[in-house]
Design brief:
By secondary structure, the protein is mainly beta. It folds into three domains: about 5-40 and about 45-285, Purple Acid Phosphatase, chain A, domain 2, CATH 3.60.21.10; about 300-385, Immunoglobulin-like; about 390-730, Methylamine Dehydrogenase, Chain H, CATH 2.130.10.10. The chain is built from eleven helices and 55 strands. Helix 9 (about 170-180) runs parallel beside helix 10 (about 205-210). It is globular, with a radius of gyration of 26 Å.
Length: about 725
Amino acid sequence: MTETPLTRRGFLGVTTAGIALGAAAGWGPWPGGEMASASTEETSEGALRFAVLTDTHANEDESARMTNLRRVFAAIEAEDPQFVLHCGDITDYGSDDAFEAYRDLIPAALWSRLRHVPGNHEIRWDTSARRRFQHWLGPTSYGFDAGGVHFMALDPTQLLQEPGLFADDLAALKEELSEVKDRPSILFLHYPLGGANYYVNDTDALLRTIAPFPVRGIFAGHRHLNEVDRFNGLTQVTTNAARQGPFYLRVTERRGQQGRALHVEHVTLGTTDADVPTVESLAEIPLEAPSRRTEAIRIAPRPGDTEIALTAVPDRTAVSVEARLHPQAVFGARDETAWIPLVARGRSWHGAVDRTGVAAGAQRVQVRAVDASGMRREEWAEVELPGSTRARLAWELDIGGQLQGALAVNGTTVVACSTSGRVTAVDASRRGRVRPLWTADAGAVHRGAAFTPDGNRVVVPGADGRLLALDARSGHAVWTSHFDKPVLTTPLVAGTDGDDGRILISAEDTLRCLDLDGATLWEAPVPVRTAGRAACDGDRVYVGAGDGRGYAYDLRTGAVLWSVLTTDRPDRYRQLIYGPWDDWVEVLPTGAVVFSTVVDAIAVDPRTGEEIWRSPGSYIFAPSLPLADGGLLLTSEWGVVTVVDQATGATRWSAQAVPRVVNAGPVIDPRTGAAWLVSVGGLLAEVRPTDGVVTIDRQLFTANTFSTPVMAADKLVVAAQDGVLRAFTV
């Protein structure tokens, strides 16, 4: 069996050279060594026989769960499969302790046959930028051959986020499939695709990418249940979570009149090892090429003020065709909204989709056609819905990668950082075709940059462990501060009495204070991890940590002054996810410090950490905004905006603004005092802070955004996960 790295997210192919290099680098005991040394011929003899499991959620604090998982792996070992696919959510939160506990579950003879992909539980809280996963389990995306079939591990997870995105990896996937040629391929990944599943925002792009190639099936997890779905020539098997019980899939190759196929059975172990397992036949995945390839659906949308008229031309085998608007508001979830049937007129199908209540701007239309066997073909088409909006596109710039971090602004200069490693400065006052003022390479960047108070430098955090200071006029590097771990927090440049200021930045579990020339003044530990931005009041530094606490440090020395517990969850996993680990901490004009979690915003006394007030709501992800009238604008991840009194926490008003908000907070328009808020799905709303009146304006794009926009040169500048920086006149 041979393996190759598939994408930029995989760090090495599992080859003999790769194993030697990995050992020299001190990487952990990830599986693959024995399999890499086996030849393709040795492992392809006879029929395929392998196992699949998913969502083990190993947690060293959950003894009953670990006992169950140990039974599952022992049963799989007894079946002696050629290999085992794990579809992600291997652990609860991707800690070293959890990975080690997971490793200890697995019989020694089985370990080298395991093949893993990460789930959202490995990456959602991962401040190691996949290093921890790679240390324990190897590459996150790769391909291998067995029994004349090509298997591909796909990793659409997004660092520090919940849902998936394939993005730039699709080019590598296409290249891999081109090299595989006529061999049938099987994909395995964490998120199920197609149908009602909207866990990956560019599923449409993936299906277009693999359409010309003989991809036959998908194994997936995430939903903690069994489901078989057939679409676009694929058979997708989503399987039950091993966390919930002694479950796994047994997959065996069968040969019949229709050629080779994979027979998939769901195995449930008995209550005791003496009990006979229950085996349920779940699915059959054909490996042979179909007699004819189903044609893509040609879609012609004609948007109007109240509906979108549609003409669709599917494959001639279609017996029904339906359409609907893509549920752009759905984020990392499922959507069961009804589809509208189209009516056949000869070879084409016709109808209309209601757009009542749908914002003008960029949308997607979905069309699906079903043949007599029940196989679906799913297609998407971009559509621009007409309507009156205040936001008008002034310019856009394709930077590439994903623009995940908050934008930085100084005057009319806006700086955007990309996961591709490119840092780009633009003059927002330009119209029409805009060109960068400069670009720089900083390695992958997942958080925002920050200007120094004089505007002369831009401080950029890098996932490669570098904190860079760039000249704001040229983009040239002025100094570099090196960390042992990825820098996945937005730097705070704080003014202090008697000097030019301090830079405060965290790399996973280390808080560092630097002067503006890049000299380290002190370092202090942050328990577990942090991904949020620090705050400073000139005397103390405040950080939300992964142990469920907010911490205060002495700005001069880095000594811990106090900590406050923000959650009563009893175990390490829940202390992390229910704590302020990703909070953009805020110091209010009243002097109070606000730590936010997925449950509350909590204001505390800066000298003691004693609670002053708390406001219920999941306010951790979007930065809060102090208002000039003594209010504090809070934005929950569920799109609810609330203004509370800074001194007392009393609610002045609360309103539903947009469907979901993640990391992209509101920005005040200095001309009107109104706040502009962009949902995670790209929906723009204007919020009036004085009374809570919300006006939905425009669907800006169909990409997701996790980046707080900025106002510059009377324009709203917005970044998105499609790698495009856009400026709108508003």
